[in-house]
């Protein structure tokens, strides 16, 4: 707790924190992305013939890194992790073809930078 206070104080001292407008925008981006992930998972499950009650469960977006810790700045990226049911695989997510989430991101107005990390490994 003491180190957290020291870090927080230092960030305030050197003006590293995002201002309230930037913070609000970042929260909106995460919320919008979360909605996109859920909708994409539902649509992809339906396309794969998954029963409707399972498809409607959707997916979940988690944030990590500096954003999750509350020590992000306006210039930092927002690290995210997408959790989806077993019917969705890495190829679905990283596909640059229509139907893939990466494709969807790249073709969404207002999204200017997409950096998929295909070699990321998340233990389950």
TrEMBL record:
It holds the Pfam family PAP_NTPase. Gene3D superfamilies: Beta Polymerase, domain 2. One of its GO terms (cellular component) is nucleus. Residues 2-124 form the Poly(A) polymerase nucleotidyltransferase domain. InterPro entries: NT_sf, PolA_pol_NTPase. GO terms for molecular function: poly(A) RNA polymerase activity. This is Poly(A) polymerase nucleotidyltransferase domain-containing protein.
């Amino acid at each position: 707790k003491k180190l957290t206070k020291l870090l927080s104080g230092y960030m305030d001292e050197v003006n590293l924190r995002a201002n309230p407008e930037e913070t609000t925008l970042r929260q909106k981006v995460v919320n919008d992305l979360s909605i996109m992930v859920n909708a994409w998972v539902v649509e992809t499950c339906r396309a794969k013939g998954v029963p409707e009650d399972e498809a409607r469960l959707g997916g979940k977006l988690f944030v990590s890194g500096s954003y999750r810790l509350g020590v992000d700045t306006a210039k930092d990226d927002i690290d995210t992790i997408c959790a989806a049911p077993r019917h969705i695989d890495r190829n679905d997510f990283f596909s640059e073809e229509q139907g893939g989430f990466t494709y969807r991101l790249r073709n969404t107005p207002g999204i200017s930078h997409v950096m998929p990390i295909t070699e990321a490994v998340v233990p389950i």
